[in-house]
Amino acid sequence: MYMPIGNSFRFTAIKKYQSYKINLMNHEELISTLNECANYCNHCADACLEEDHIQMMVTCIRYDRMCAEVCSSLAKLLSINVPSQKLMALVEYCKNLCASCAEECSSHEAQHCQNCAAACKRCVDACSKFLYNH
C-alpha cells in the first residue's frame, strides 16, 4: 500500500483539484446549456399533458422526456472529471436527439413547444462546438 510522505500527497491532491477545476471550467458553457435544455424539455412535456388534443402531443412528450434525460445525464458526466474523449459518442448522440426534439417541437404552435425547440437548437449548437473543439 502506498503511503504518501510529507507534502507529496497534498501536492498531488491540489494538482488533481486544479486539473478538475480547469476541466469543469472548460465545460461550463455546455453544462449550462444542457441543463437549460433539460429544464425546457421537462416543462414542455408537462405542458403538453395539459393540451386539449393530447394525442397529437405524444411524440413531442416522448422526445421531451428522452432529451431531458440525456441532457441531464451528460451535464452530470461533464461536471465530474471524465476525460472528454470518453464522452464524444454521448455528446454526438445528445446533439442528434436534441435536433430531433427541436424538429418535433417546432411542428407544434404552442409557445412551450416553440421555447423548447429554441433551447434544443441552442443545445445542438453547444454540442457541435464541443465536438469541434475536442
UniProtKB/TrEMBL annotation:
<protein>
    <recommendedName>
        <fullName>Four-helix bundle copper-binding protein</fullName>
    </recommendedName>
</protein>
<dbReference type="Pfam" id="PF03860">
    <property type="entry name" value="Csp"/>
</dbReference>
<dbReference type="InterPro" id="IPR005560">
    <property type="entry name" value="Csp_YhjQ"/>
</dbReference>
<dbReference type="InterPro" id="IPR044543">
    <property type="entry name" value="YHJQ-like"/>
</dbReference>
